[in-house]
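hey can u check if this looks right to u? its 250 residues, i copy pasted from the old doc so theres a chance i mangled smth
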Amino acid sequence: MEEGQWRAARGLVREAGRVVALTGAGISAESGVPTFRDAGGLWRSYRPEELATPEALARDPRTVLEWYEWRRSMLADCRPNAGHRALARFFLKCGESGLVTQNVDGLHTRAALEEAGAGAADAALPIELHGAVGRDRCDGCGARSPAEPLGDDLPRCGGCGGLRRPDVVLFGEPLDAAVLDRARVLAERADLCLVVGTSAVVYPAAALPLATLQAGGHIVEVNPQRTALTDAAAAALRGEAGTVLPALLD
């Protein structure tokens, strides 16, 4: 059965003209990235759900920004793994395809830049549905900038003076409509959707593989366990992304 799954998956990758990949926390866990809720458990007696909200940011911005700075420190020593790199190499040579991630750790972007060099085209970079912890975004004008260490004063936008906050989607905030639309278009046009390291239950991201399926494409799943998408997948490869993806894509 396993060999049959591999033959099917390799055939679908080989024959696909357009491929989209959706990745989740599982691929980054292999790089040592802690999941949202197990990164040290409670932080100063707060739970993540109490801090990662617009209301908390408005009420106590310093505490929220300190927590995100702590999260950034947790990511400082994490590096892209073989799964990130295999996807980066694959999508760097596939002009009509693209990678979509639910992760905010920035490891897919780093992998693409390291594989292609600093001159990598924007089209080769991942679509980050939920943003990236390593960037700031102005709460006023929306301008983005690299994250900087938190000082005595709250960080302010040099353009409009608004609060600079992590460029991530907080609980209760909608996804950026333009970003979600780009991902949806990729999924609808794809012949194949690779679903890697995600349980595929959080919407709207979970709708992307179904969009490929409904448009006549196929799904290949890469995950150690069964998920909500397994029965819909043309092939399901059991194992860690860092082992499976290089064997499938390189």
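The two ends are 22 Å apart (CA to CA).
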